[in-house]
Design brief:
Helix content of chain B: 40-55%
Largest sheet of chain A: 5 strands, parallel
Number of strands of chain A: 9
CATH architecture of chain A: 3-Layer(aba) Sandwich
Number of domains of chain A: 1
Helix content of chain A: 25-40%
CATH superfamily of chain A: P-loop containing nucleotide triphosphate hydrolases
Number of strands of chain B: 17
Number of helices of chain B: 14
Strand content of chain A: 15-25%
CATH topology of chain A: Rossmann fold
Shape of chain A: globular
Structural class of chain B: alpha+beta
Shape of chain B: elongated
Oligomer: heterodimer
Largest interface: A-B, 31 and 24 residues
Strand order of the largest sheet of chain A: 6-7-8-3-9
Number of helices of chain A: 8
Structural class of chain A: alpha/beta
Strand content of chain B: 15-25%
Radius of gyration of chain A: 17 Å
CATH class of chain A: Alpha Beta
Number of domains of chain B: 2
Chain lengths: 225, 419
């Protein structure tokens, strides 16, 4: 099954005369881990927002999990994201006023599907924390007291809970040093594979590329540039 | 549920600025309610300056003027009424009791009221309360005086103090009744009415000090000693006004008409409640001013809340993006802000109510001791509830602005927020 199918996808910001994105074709299969590399200004962010269903394409089609999303209503796209996607940001992924476990189980509050899949969200969260090597001793801490690397791992747990099919990671390692970064990617891969989630990892950093079986240069598929 | 939890946690996370906003709303609300309370209390206190009296009768003028000089001791009577006219009504079969009032003299700026013992027996203020003595007793002798609470307090008089009355109602009178000093035999408890600022003497006392006077000035070379005067016939020829209580209150308007049509002398009878209401209309303008001020205070409070909400927008941008990423609808973000405002304003209203209640409870004993005014315990009424509702609705309307901004931003920012 293809997780992502883009065809003749074009996006143009309002008031601009040129497209920022024009992708004739892109297909990502289930379970694939894709590294999407692009310099800033290459349309990375726009593509992510299109995939996440926050933007709608000017033209062309977006099919995720064999569902047409380019023509879906905004609330349907929101629902789709809640049910099928986990998102990891570059930094500051966590709500400072929630505990570690509360942050992780947050998607289960918005998506019944992920809640059902998680079984007991509390337990699922603790399990993920175990797998991501976040010790018991850390769990009583405020999330703001965690190191950046630890925070990013909590974000991974949140993205993974309830087994969403797609994990979107937007420069999640840019604030980490090399050894933490490699360990982070390893853990992310292991956990994603355990639940058969597809990772779409976006970054400008070519050093990470070696971890990925598939690397897509945005400049090569985006004909608008 | 998650919405409430997130709102609460987020608020708690920013508790200091939220608390300050809440307090500023509470202060605005307590001012709003407090002013309304004071307005009502002032009105009821005013309306209860005189109580239990069915008619005030004086020479024909306006009813407001009659009320002003007879009850509030402000201004002067245009004319007096004859003693025989008064006697006619004392014996009237509809009238249960009367209190004669004779005004025109003063002591250090305080009005002197000539009356008789019936004053202490029948006069009622504020919900049928009789006059009571802090010290001493009613006057008996010609040269006895009973002081209102404020007179005694301000001038430092005690029982036995000798006082000289001055002719005319102004403090700066040059003509004093020096040869006939009065001695203080009683001091009244505070009433919160003009009685506190009145020196009470007997009608005979008033008559005695004016025996050797004519047309408002002492007759040169004509001096009657105090002792001699006291033995003379001191029945007054005129009084300024009198208060009357009826046997049957339903006869009030019939008797009022009868008095107004009295053939022997032009009289005016006023129903205190009606005249008080008319007077309040005239002086009650400050109500409007108070209201306007309060409304501005409230708007300032709400604007404060709006400012706080708007200023948190930037620091909460990340929070909103995270919520969007985990699947929150944009309208959810909108609700988050609305709920937050609702929480602040409802808590602010409750705290404001508590402040007013506590303030009134705290002030009660002091106001009673100092001014003799009984403050009613503050209990929110319909109008208060309506005002609180209005405040809440206004706050929610105000908060739609930051909510809308946050809503639009979450749509624009998408998943990637530049920090």
């Amino acid at each position: 099954m293809n997780i992502v199918e883009l065809a003749q996808l074009r996006y143009r910001w309002k008031g601009q005369s040129k497209d920022i994105l024009n992708i004739p074709e892109l297909t990502i299969a289930q379970g694939e881990h894709v590294f999407l590399r692009g310099e800033s200004g290459s349309g990375k962010t726009t593509l992510l927002n299109l995939l996440a269903g926050i933007l709608t394409p000017t033209d062309g089609s977006i099919r995720l999990l064999e569902e047409d999303l380019h023509s879906a209503s905004s609330s349907k796209r929101d629902r789709f994201r809640a049910d099928h996607m986990g998102v990891i940001f570059q930094q500051f992924n966590l709500l400072p006023y929630l505990s570690m476990v509360e942050n992780i189980t947050l998607p289960c509050s918005f998506s019944k599907r992920r809640r059902d899949k998680a079984g007991d969200p509390q337990q699922a969260a603790t399990q993920l924390l175990d797998h991501l090597q976040l010790d018991e001793s850390l769990r009583s801490k405020m999330v703001t007291e965690l190191s950046v690397g630890q925070q990013q791992r909590v974000a991974v747990a949140r993205a993974l809970i309830g087994q969403p099919e797609i994990i979107i990671a937007d420069e999640p390692t840019s604030a980490l040093d090399t050894s933490t970064r490699d360990r982070f990617i390893d853990l992310l891969f292991t956990q994603a594979e355990a639940q058969n989630s597809t990772i779409i990892f976006v970054s400008h950093d070519p050093h990470i590329a070696s971890h990925f079986p598939r690397v897509i240069e945005l400049s090569e598929i985006n004909t608008a540039l | 549920m998650i919405l409430l939890k997130l709102t609460w946690r987020s608020l708690w996370n920013r508790r200091i600025s939220v608390l300050l906003t809440l307090i500023s709303i509470a202060i605005s609300v307590s001012l709003l309610l407090g002013v309304e309370y004071i307005r009502k209390e002032a009105k009821s206190s005013f309306m209860n300056t005189i109580s239990g009296t069915d008619l005030v009768v004086g020479a024909r003028s306006g009813q407001v003027q009659l009320l002003l000089y007879s009850v509030f001791r402000i201004g002067n009577a245009t004319n007096n009424i004859g003693w025989d006219t008064y006697q006619h009504y004392v014996k009237h079969d509809q009238i249960a009791w009367t209190i004669p009032l004779s005004l025109g003299d003063s002591h250090k700026g305080y009005r002197v009221l000539g009356t008789n013992q019936d004053y202490f027996k029948h006069y009622r203020y504020a919900y049928q309360q009789p006059l009571s003595f802090a010290q001493g007793k009613p006057f008996e002798g010609v040269y006895d005086a009973v002081l209102g609470a404020e007179v005694a307090k301000r001038l430092g008089y005690t029982l036995g103090t000798q006082i000289i009355l001055a002719h005319g109602a102004n403090g700066a009178s040059f003509s004093e009744h020096k040869n006939k000093p009065f001695s203080v035999v009683g001091i009244l408890k505070p009433t919160g009415t003009p009685i506190d600022r009145t020196v009470h003497v007997s009608l005979e006392g008033i008559e005695a000090i004016h025996l050797d006077w004519q047309s408002g000035a002492p007759v040169p070379g004509f001096n009657i000693s105090a002792e001699k005067a006291a033995r003379m016939n001191l029945e007054p020829e005129t009084i300024t006004a009198f208060l009357a209580g009826l046997k049957n209150r339903s006869a009030t308007f019939r008797l009022q008409r009868e008095i107004n049509q009295y053939k022997q002398e032009p009289l005016l009878a006023a129903v205190p409640g009606v005249a008080l209401a008319e007077l309040w209309q005239a002086i009650g303008q400050f109500e409007i001013v108070l209201r306007i001020i309060t409304i501005f205070v409230l708007i300032a409070g709400l604007l404060g809340m709006l400012t706080t909400l708007l200023s948190t927008l930037n620091e909460r941008r990340r929070e909103m993006a995270i919520l969007r990423a985990v699947g929150a609808y944009p309208r959810y973000i909108f609700m988050l802000f609305l709920l937050e405002a609702l929480f602040i304003v409802v808590m602010g209203c409750l705290l404001g109510c508590a402040l007013v209640f506590a303030g009134v409870q705290f002030a009660q004993p002091w106001v009673i001791a100092e001014y003799g005014l009984h403050l009613n315990t503050w209990i929110p009424g319909w109008s208060d509830g309506l005002m609180l509702l209005l405040v809440t609705v206004l706050a929610v309307i105000f908060s739609t602005l930051p909510a809308l901004i946050a809503y639009r931003r979450t749509l624009q920012d998408g998943l990637t927020v530049k920090i």
